[in-house]
């Protein structure tokens, strides 16, 4: 249901174990903090404010992560390929433009420098070097 409702983006997130692992570790650490730290507050060295700071940190982390996995990773399409080519041009040293190349064999578009086709997402991603397991 969630894969159909969220489209390809949410399906990609649910298909990889990185996001699930991140959320499990984050929530596990917070539960451990609740049992091992919050029960000892307040004390002479720390006030009850520390409980709220820990909770606010967890909420901010989870909300940031949800934002991260829900935004477009920089998918290169035929509509925006020229924009990506202007923003990240070939430098001729590390990234060389291949003359006569058709570009991406799967997407059938010209690939800008630093882009690569992602088999998980199903499209070319600009600056693929920052396309991450956790997202």
From TrEMBL:
Q: Which reaction does it catalyse?
A: L-cysteinyl-[protein] + hexadecanoyl-CoA = S-hexadecanoyl-L-cysteinyl-[protein] + CoA
Known EC number(s)?
Answer: 2.3.1.225
Is Glycoprotein tagged as a keyword?
no
| Palmitoyltransferase DHHC domain span | 101-135
- Sorted alphabetically, which keywords does the UniProt record give? Acyltransferase, Membrane, Transferase, Transmembrane, Transmembrane helix
Family, similarity comment: Belongs to the DHHC palmitoyltransferase family.
Q: Which PROSITE patterns match?
A: DHHC (PS50216)
This chain belongs to the protein called Palmitoyltransferase
Which principal EC class is assigned to this enzyme?
A: transferase
Q: Cellular component GO terms, alphabetically?
A: endoplasmic reticulum; Golgi apparatus; membrane
The biological process GO terms on file are: protein targeting to membrane
Any idea where this protein resides?
Membrane
The topology of this chain with respect to the membrane is: Multi-pass membrane protein
Molecular function (GO) terms for this protein are: protein-cysteine S-palmitoyltransferase activity
Q: What does the comment on domains in this protein's record state? A: The DHHC domain is required for palmitoyltransferase activity.
Q: Can you name the source organism?
A: Vitrella brassicaformis
């Amino acid at each position: 249901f969630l894969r159909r409702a969220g489209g390809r983006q949410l399906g990609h997130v649910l298909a990889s174990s990185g996001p699930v692992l991140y959320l499990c570790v984050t929530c596990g650490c917070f539960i451990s903090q609740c049992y091992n730290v919050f029960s000892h507050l307040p004390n002479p060295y720390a006030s009850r404010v520390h409980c709220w700071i820990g909770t606010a940190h967890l909420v901010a982390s989870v909300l940031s992560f949800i934002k991260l996995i829900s935004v477009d990773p920089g998918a290169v399409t035929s509509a925006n390929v020229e924009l990506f080519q202007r923003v990240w041009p070939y430098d001729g040293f590390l990234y060389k433009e291949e003359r006569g190349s058709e570009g991406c064999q799967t997407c059938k578009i010209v690939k800008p420098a630093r882009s690569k086709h992602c088999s998980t997402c199903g499209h070319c991603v600009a600056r693929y070097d920052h396309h991450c397991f956790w997202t």
